[in-house]
Amino acid sequence: MMPRCCILVLVWGITVFLSHCSQGTTDAPVDSGPWLCQPAPRCGNKIYNPSEQCCYDDAILSLEQTRRCGSNCTFWPCFELCCPESFGPQQKFLVKLKVLGMKSQCHSSPISRSCIG
């Protein structure tokens, strides 16, 4: 059996611990997911999850999906742009990087690679 002083110290420690834990609590659950007061990202009139998907030409794509760029290249539309550089018999396309947080455009984005064909 534990002596009374040990029991009192144990009760005091639990009380101090619980009082410190309760100071930072809020009404929200610990794992509440995304805050509902933030606007949800939309693609056209559909909501999508930007950690798993992106919006490309009003279509929701998974981050791993690729598309054709010219006749012999592929690109990731969630992360890159397919930009026509020249037309005619020898078409040339450039794959350019999308810049995070900006509306990326072909004329101002950094080049990733060239697609000739």
Question: Can you tell me about this structure?
Answer:
With 117 residues, the protein is α+β, with helices and mostly antiparallel strands. The protein starts with a helix and ends with a strand. The strands form 4 sheets. The chain has a 3-stranded antiparallel beta sheet with strand order 7-8-9, with no helix packed on it. The protein has a domain of 56 residues. It has 1 helix and 9 strands; from the N terminus they run H-E-E-E-E-E-E-E-E-E. The longest helix is centred in the first third of the chain and has 19 residues.
Q: Globular, elongated, flat, extended or rod-shaped: what is the shape? A: elongated
On the 0 to 100 scale, the average pLDDT is 78
Coarse structural class: alpha+beta
Instruction: Report the β-strand fraction as a percent range.
Output: 25-35%
DSSP helical segment count: 1
Oligomeric status of the shown chains? single chain
Beta-strand segment tally: 9
Give the spatial strand order of the biggest sheet. 7-8-9
Uncertain runs: 20-29
SSE pattern, N- to C-terminal: HEEEEEEEEE
Approximate helicity band: 10-25%
Which radius of gyration do the C-alpha atoms yield?
A: 27 Å
What's the end-to-end separation, in Å? 86 Å
- Major β-sheet profile: 3 strands, antiparallel
